[in-house]
Amino acid sequence: MSIGDARNGLVLSVRQVTVAGGGDRPALCEVSFDLPAGAVLGVAGEPGSGRSTLTRVLTGDHVEHTGTVTLRPRDDGPEIVLRADTPRPSRAERLAAASPRVLDAADPVLTPRQRHADVLVIDDAPASSAAALARLRDRYGFAIVVTCTDPAALRGVADEVAVLYGGRIVEHGRAEDVWAGPHHPHTIDLFAGARSGATPASEPGCPYRARCAYRMGVCDDTDPALDLVTVGDGGTTMTACLQYDRDVPDPALLAASGRVVVPQG
Ligand code: SF4
């Protein structure tokens, strides 16, 4: 199931969530996504990318944030808007955290609270956890937000993949599209196993430019926003990279991806 095809039945909506960081960049910056019942969202990123901050916002670790996190129970119960001071027990009835260690077992065992949640959150899943995650989803019907370093770790179970870098989503699309042709250079690097954990370049300019093999002159001055890119079957994916700006296309990269730039009006 694609998240994009299932806007009805959302159990979790995250909108523009931002968490202050220790330096000049936020730990999490304007992160948004929707999660329908039973869907699996994989969040990939290096340590320090913001993936653990995101799971802490969701699971109630008293992380102050702006933006909204809304739970919509599967049983049509009242909507819950999560805040940093929302008590962990009240949110845990709908949204539960699980240790990645549960995925070590071929047949994972959950607590009653985890089994009855609408959303299960697992931070830092091991590389070979797709089968265990699929078993949990199929058995209990909850949606899952699972983070990992390597997006390939979730092949076969994630419906959509979001890639974090420097606290921001730099790519977000259907998992099958990300497997077939990642757009953002950081996603390409993660698939290639090129990880450094280096801190993002400071503003102005693209935060990824110091590590980017596709860097152009404009990347030193312009901080790209998440933008829609069409994929081969007419669907869309989102990426924050100036390679996909219609004014500065890279024909070789676009030809390799088999995708085209969406005209911006
Ligand atoms: S905007 Fe430029 S530096 Fe940033 S990821 Fe894209 S090509 Fe690389």
UniProtKB/TrEMBL annotation:
SUPFAM superfamilies documented for this protein: P-loop containing nucleoside triphosphate hydrolases
Source organism, top-level taxon: Bacteria
Keywords, sorted A to Z: ATP-binding, Cell inner membrane, Cell membrane, Membrane, Nucleotide-binding, Translocase, Transport
Residue ranges constituting the AAA+ ATPase domain according to the UniProt record: 37-168
Membrane topology: Peripheral membrane protein
A single Gene Ontology CC term: plasma membrane
InterPro entries: AAA+_ATPase, ABC_Ni/Peptide_Import, ABC_transporter-like_ATP-bd, P-loop_NTPase
Annotated TM spans: none
Keyword Nucleotide-binding tagged: yes
GO MF entry, a single one: ATP binding
Pfam family of the protein (one): ABC_tran
Cell location: Cell membrane
Keyword Membrane listed: yes
Family: Belongs to the ABC transporter superfamily.
Protein name listed in UniProt: ABC-type glutathione transport system ATPase component
